[in-house]
Amino acid sequence: MTVRSTPLNAVTAHKQYSEMTDMPSAHSVKAQDKYPTRLFRAPTYVTQPRREAVVKGRHLAGPLTEAQLDEFERKGFLFIPNLISGDELDALRQEMSGLMNNDAYRDRAFSVTEPESHEIRSLFAIHKLSDRFGKLASDERLAGAARQIIGDDPYVHQSRINYKPGFAGKGFDWHSDFETWHAEDGMPNMHAISASLILTDNHEFNGPLMLIPGSHLQFVPCLGETPKDNHKNSLKAQEVGVPSSEALTKLVDEHGIEAPKGKAGGLLLFDCNTLHASNANLSPDPRSNVFFVFNRPDNRCIKPFAAPKPRPDFLAHGLEGR
Question: Is this structure's pTM higher than 0.85?
Answer without folding.
Answer: yes
